[in-house]
Design goal:
Blueprint lengths: L2 H9 L21 H10 L9 E3 L4 E2 L3 H7 L3 E4 L18 E5 L5 E5 L7 E4 L8 H5 L15 H11 L3 E4 L6 H9 L1 H10 L1 H26 L5 E5 L12 H22 L3 E5 L8 H6 L4 E3 L10 H8 L4 E3 L16 H15 L5 E2 L12 H14 L3
Parallel strand pairs: 3-7, 7-8, 8-9, 9-10, 10-11, 11-12
Antiparallel strand pairs: 1-2, 4-5, 5-6
Length: about 375
């Protein structure tokens, strides 16, 4: 059985020969550059130039020798930057490097002790009216450079490598983009006192996404098994907006997006949302989400046993394989605790299929290589059907 068959069986809620494994197929299931360098050294693998997959998260493109060592079953393909944008890392802020993304959002990271880039500039934070927003220069989803080489990447991964192909989106989620453009304080206030501005931003982000998916799926749709979308809806203990607000304002737009994608491809929709979102999972299933990631098992209401029991027939879980906020990411070597946690998650999530093994979100900077190897060994040993 090849990797593509293994993943497709799992996503169709069937048991394969082994639980499929993902490390690095998405910018949400990869590994921080520091942890990756330590892992390569621990395994005695040669130093290679680090390829950064996502600058903000500082996660890497997994090299082929590591992919082969772990037996990864999925490969991501993603669009390029448009011809009108060039990433430029600057040292304009004291003690930080910084850059602006194609949306005009500013990101900074400390020169010393920094692990990630955090937002520091929100280009529409001072917007007072819809006219201020409507005149803003939004990214062009039609730029041909975004799609250059995409078809060949997807074809090679699907037909030659026989990997499950995950096609990345053009940006973060529609709700996240509204928050990042406005700044969180203004964004949450907009739900109450500036709903027209919030809805315009959501609709603009949706418009850009629809244009991207129409072009991307026309290019590579026959090779793609999974399409990747996201919108963080939860914190550690509850949803970030009320379920009522989600259902009234955001859910109809998510449904438009997911319906649009499903009409153009047989691929499954992978939806990423961190946090305590149990209350919204039935809504996500209703509007066409096929796969939930990262399955943050220690957030409120996200117990892996209960998630599988209550939703496992209707949605697949991609993630949840090891708790990154627990023993895995404590910063300490704790091989047995990691293996125990992995075994528990496999016991909970694997029966009947519907599970692709990955850590809860990216493997973070402080995860020792011994813990990563323990995770993999436990997946290898316990993940057989």
């Amino acid at each position: 059985m090849d990797s593509r068959q293994r993943v497709l069986l799992a996503l169709n809620h069937q048991e394969a020969d082994h639980v499929p494994l993902d490390i690095g197929a998405t910018l949400l299931t990869s590994i921080h550059r520091t942890a990756y360098q330590k892992l390569r050294a621990f395994l005695g693998m040669p130093e290679l130039p680090i390829q950064i997959m996502n600058v903000c998260e500082q996660v890497v493109v997994i090299d082929e020798d590591i992919r082969q060592f772990f037996g990864v079953d999925a490969r991501g393909v993603e669009p390029r930057d448009p011809s009108t944008y060039r990433l430029e890392i600057k040292n304009d802020l004291p003690g930080h490097t910084c850059f602006y993304d194609e949306w005009g959002i500013g990101w900074k990271m400390p020169l010393e002790g920094g692990f990630f880039y955090d937002m520091f500039y929100h280009p529409l934070a001072q917007a007072q009216s819809l006219d201020d927003v409507k005149t803003y220069s939004f990214p062009d989803p039609h730029d041909a450079q975004r799609y250059r080489g995409l078809r060949e990447q997807a074809r090679h991964a699907a037909e030659i490598e026989r990997q499950a192909v995950v096609l990345a989106g053009i940006s973060s989620g529609i709700l996240e983009l509204a928050a990042w453009l406005r700044g969180y304080e203004k964004h949450y206030a907009d739900f109450i006192d500036n709903l027209p501005m919030l809805e315009f931003l959501l609709d603009k982000a949706l418009e850009i996404k629809l244009a991207y998916w129409e072009k991307a799926l026309a290019e590579v749709g026959e090779y793609v098994d999974v399409v990747e979308e996201a919108d963080d809806l939860g914190g550690q203990y509850r949803t970030l907006i009320s379920p009522k607000m989600y259902r009234t304002i955001v859910k109809p737009r998510h449904k438009m997006l997911f319906d649009f994608i499903h009409r153009r491809t047989k691929a499954k929709i992978f939806f990423h949302s961190c946090g305590a979102i149990r209350e919204l999972i039935p809504d996500l299933i209703e509007i066409g989400v096929d796969i939930l990631n990262p399955v943050q098992v220690n957030a409120a209401g996200m117990d892996s046993t209960a998630l599988k029991r209550d939703f496992g027939r209707d949605i697949a879980f991609w993630g949840g394989g090891v708790d990154t906020q627990g023993a895995f990411g404590s910063g300490k070597v704790d091989v047995q605790a990691v293996k125990d946690d992995v075994r528990r998650r496999i016991d909970d999530l694997a029966p009947g299929g519907g599970f692709v093994f990955s850590a809860v979100h990216n493997i973070q900077e402080n995860v020792p290589p011994e813990n990563i190897i323990a995770m993999w060994e436990a997946w290898r040993d316990y993940g057989k059907y």
